Amino acid sequence: MAASRSPLSRLFTVLLAGLLAGLVLAVAALPGNLLLGFAAQSAIGTYAALPEALRTPATPQRSYLYANDGKTLITTFYDVNRTDVALADIAPVMRQAIVASEDRRFYDHGGADVRGLLRALVANVKGGGNEQGGSTLTMQYVRNVLKTDPTRSAEERAAATDPTIGRKVQEIRYASALEQSLSKDEILNRYLNIAYFGSGAYGIAAASQRYFGKPPARLTLAEAALLAGLVQSPDAYSPIDGDKDAALARRGYVLDSMAATGAITAAQATQAKAEPLTLKPTAQPNGCTAVAQGHDDWGFFCDYLRRWWLTQPAFGATAAEREQALRSGGYRVVTSLDPEVQATAQQQATKVYGYDNKRALPIAAVQPGTGQVLAMAVNRHYSLADNPDGQANYPNTVNPLISGGASVDGYQAGSTFKLFTMLAALESGRTLSTGFDAPARLPTRYTAEGPGSCDGRWCPVNANPDWMDGYRMMWDGFGRSVNTYFVWLAEQVGQDKVVEMAQRLGITFRAESDAAFAKNNAANWGSFTLGVAATTPLDLANAYATVAAEGTYCTPVPVVSVTDATGAKVPVGEPSCKRVLDADVARAATDAARCPVGQQSPYGQCNGGTATVVNRILDGRPVAGKTGSSEENATETFVGFTPQVAVAGIAANPDDPTDSVGSAVQARVIDAVARVIGTAVKGQPEKAFTAPSRELAGEPRRPVPRAPATPDREREPSQDPRSALQRWLDRQG
């Protein structure tokens, strides 16, 4: 509770302190206006009349980002490196040291120390470079709050340190009002949480970590004395950035002061003075380029979270306010990043392509039913470091290669887009048994010129006619990735319905040419079903996650929970989900999607797939998915899913879409994605897919032979009438 002092005593203290404070400043700096300043400012202040920042501190604090276990630190964000701690979490010797160093009579005065002011007055009159301010800890706390209050203007913050009589007397009034309502321990706690200790550390928690790599509860006597000595002149005394000898001399002064106050014995002071200065400097990471050591791959996820944060109204009305909230709000953010899944994804991405390869394998993992992003990996360092000449994006980049945005439109994902055609067809009333005698080459109604045309019409072909041509249904058409079957099916349904389905499941057209085609000419986008639109692994994984969740689309989200500096939960990050597909339609699509990965539909209609190795890698666990190869094998894609996770990877050259990665890498992409799925479901119960209704399965028109020889790769040439170079040029504007 607050110290017990009579109203008369408090009045006398305030009046005398105000007079002496004016004299101190008048003698030291401003000879005139003493009486005017005193007359205008000497009234007693009340706690209720204090600025809000003094009653409810709103000091800037560091925000922490953790992985989904709530323990693994990813990074921190801050403008001011500080974190509040309770007084009980600060070593008693630290509390004693700061009192002995800065305000020996702290527990005796009422906010302004008359003796201290007299002592300062005498010292300042004498001069000789030994000027003193006579400020108590309470007055210093007032000054620190007002000069750092984020709710005040820059001019108001600067005025908190003006060398004027009015400012000094106001400081005394505010200190007196605080002491009438707060206990000494509360004031001391607030002071220790805001004082600047040099080297970028604000507050005792940040200082203890910055200088000694430990929490303030574990500070030794010598360490506490050193930190207490820094607050008088943080930059000059800092043993990291300033003068170590001066820091040690100041430490000795603090220890002697502690002995003089009886906090420690003279012997203890002597022993502590003899201890060598042993620092363990620990720099707190700041931002996405300063993620935990050895985990710079986490930076891509961190960057995605930051972009998400800037769109959330809960953190401010504008992007600038939200950015400032992240850097000064003291938030504790438990992200959705799964360290084990991320580690596997990064290992697999770099196994396919090394860090110094111009080609990349961005991989994203999403949890169906929540939209939580579990991993974002690519064979790049998230770094602002320079790259060798001619290497725009490798080995270092901060571009969002996995999620898209900024300058990244994405990559063609080939036949993975056939899923959207199948869904649109099922939704329109067609069944999985819908059959078509797929030819090697299919003349369409779409006009085209060049090698992909016949008599002025676009004529897509099957990559492997001997294995793909013939009568197909959705099961084996999807399993064998038969181009002509799905182009025909899209014509029956309507290309605009297919495009709309992709958008409904979260596919975003970031390339201007793709967005324009989708908006103005979707009905004539014949090649859309073959995956000519640019997308990203994150969009693709989340689209397939929607099917895994039986038609429930969830907006991708990078957090599990966010709490503010007071521990209150912020209402953001909850799954934002809605039904976009009938559950039976999604189940039917899943049923067909088991064919590519070497599994069997409950209706027994799978007879070959392009990624049968997945079934072996996952040891028969229920899984579905689809491969995709863009024109001339410019990219190779695989996306797979179980009821618990969806993972997508796209091999591409982010800087040059005309650089074909080649068909040989497809097997490695499939293997990489399958192993990420394996890590994600490890330890989880095996969960089966629900079979679709007989109504949507339909009646197969002929028996299907079981498991013929099947190549574990696919190729879809001539998917787009435009050349790869032309499409790239189109995207450049």
From TrEMBL:
GO CC aspect terms: outer membrane-bounded periplasmic space
Occurrences of domain Penicillin-binding protein transpeptidase (ranges): 364-671
Domain Glycosyl transferase family residue range list: 73-258
Catalytic activity field: [GlcNAc-(1->4)-Mur2Ac(oyl-L-Ala-gamma-D-Glu-L-Lys-D-Ala-D-Ala)](n)-di-trans,octa-cis-undecaprenyl diphosphate + beta-D-GlcNAc-(1->4)-Mur2Ac(oyl-L-Ala-gamma-D-Glu-L-Lys-D-Ala-D-Ala)-di-trans,octa-cis-undecaprenyl diphosphate = [GlcNAc-(1->4)-Mur2Ac(oyl-L-Ala-gamma-D-Glu-L-Lys-D-Ala-D-Ala)](n+1)-di-trans,octa-cis-undecaprenyl diphosphate + di-trans,octa-cis-undecaprenyl diphosphate + H(+); Preferential cleavage: (Ac)2-L-Lys-D-Ala-|-D-Ala. Also transpeptidation of peptidyl-alanyl moieties that are N-acyl substituents of D-alanine
Matching Gene3D superfamilies: Biosynthetic peptidoglycan transglycosylase-like, DD-peptidase/beta-lactamase superfamily
MF annotations from Gene Ontology: penicillin binding; peptidoglycan glycosyltransferase activity; serine-type D-Ala-D-Ala carboxypeptidase activity
Region (Disordered): 685-733
GO terms under biological process: cell wall organization; peptidoglycan biosynthetic process; proteolysis; regulation of cell shape
Keywords (A to Z) from UniProt: Carboxypeptidase, Cell shape, Cell wall biogenesis/degradation, Glycosyltransferase, Hydrolase, Multifunctional enzyme, Peptidoglycan synthesis, Protease, Transferase
SUPFAM superfamilies, A to Z: beta-lactamase/transpeptidase-like, Lysozyme-like
Family designation: In the C-terminal section; belongs to the transpeptidase family. In the N-terminal section; belongs to the glycosyltransferase 51 family.
Name under which the protein is recorded: Transglycosylase domain-containing protein
Organism the protein comes from: Micromonospora profundi
